[in-house]
Amino acid sequence: MRTSQTPIGSGFGPYTTTTDVIAGCDLAGKVAVVTGGYSGLGLETAKILAAAGARVIVPARDPDKAKRALQAMPDIALESLDLMDPASIDGFAERFLATGQALHLLVNSAGFMSNDLVRDSRGYESQFSTNHLGHFQLTGRLLPALRQAGGARVVAVSSRGHRFGGIDFDDPNFERRDYDRWAAYAQSKTANALFALSLDELGKSHGVRAFSVHPGTIMTDFARNATKEELRSFGIFDEEGRLIIDPVRGAKTVEQGTATIVWCATTPQLDGRGGVYCEDCDIAGENESREAGAGVRPWAADPEFADRLWQLSEQLTGGSFAG
């Protein structure tokens, strides 16, 4: 039975920070992989998991940037990984599996937002390729280590931006339709939520539970491709160009935004649950509107769409992870 998109009354909320949710959590002996763990939300996630005792591995597309960002945290291990390169993904997974370690936490945080049209070597659109397909392949390759943990969690960092549109199953890579960078972003974030839904169904008998997360509207390097006008329309800056922090409306600090990621990765409140989209450190309710507002939209929580996306993703990556 799939977990219902019904809030559980966690006791946390929009003002909650990573420090709040990690309090009393001992991750000694646990291994975590955090993609994008050297900037923004990923960096805060890696830092807080390591502080709680986990052995954290950050695979990076830009090792020099990662080394600079993590120089004050020498216990965090750096690895090489390009989510747009299938061979790089396989190489990272093979090196990890060769160590014989179990993988307890996988946080899929890396990605692009609203960039101009770029294609990977297969011709796949970069936001769909990186935000979804790369993480799909990575997670599939790491499934043996996740199962070995005897209780693992996978957190897919989605976004409320999924409300702008679902998956175009006929043309996911904009080969026939005109490219729209925000439609591509919305598609990739919907894919993150649907991926968690299917992965949880596949993995729960092996103790692998999956969640998707809207962290909030946060000013990080992730938003580098958005214009000033777009950032104002999203409520990140006011008319005078000042940063807005209003957690109730979703405009958060990095520590507040990362809280839901860390909550999904670690809280015992989600024991026995999975496949759900979360925000403000709780399971989100449903919302059918394409307008601004909390909640997961129907196209990002539909089991049939999730199954179709899984099949499409296996076709596009050439991998089968259902066994």
What is the CATH C level class, in words? Alpha Beta
How many discrete structural domains? 1
Structural class: alpha/beta
Question: How many strands appear in the DSSP assignment?
Answer: 8
What CATH calls the topology is Rossmann fold
Number of helices: 9
Described by strand count, sense and barrel closure, the largest sheet is: 8 strands, mixed
Tell me, rounded to a whole number, the average pLDDT: 93
N-end to C-end Cα span? 20 Å
Low-confidence regions: none
Share of residues in helices: 25-40%
What would you give as the CATH superfamily?
NAD(P)-binding Rossmann-like Domain
The CATH architecture category equals 3-Layer(aba) Sandwich
Morphology: globular
Alpha-carbon Rg, integer: 18 Å
Q: Could you spell the SSE succession in H and E letters?
A: HEHEHEHEHEHEHHEEH
Summarize the structure in short:
The protein has 323 residues and is of the alpha/beta class.
Written overview of the protein:
The structure is a single chain. Helices cover 36% and strands 11% of the residues. By secondary structure, the protein is α/β, with parallel strands linked by helices. It has a single domain, classed as Rossmann fold. The chain has an eight-stranded mixed beta sheet with strand order 3-2-1-4-5-6-7-8, sandwiched between helices. Helix 2 packs across helix 8 and helix 5 packs parallel to helix 6. The chain starts with 17 loop residues before the first helix and ends in a 6-residue tail after the last helix.
Task: Summarize this structure as a short list of keywords or feature phrases.
8 strands; 323 residues; eight-stranded mixed β-sheet; Rossmann fold; globular; 9 helices; 36% helix; alpha/beta
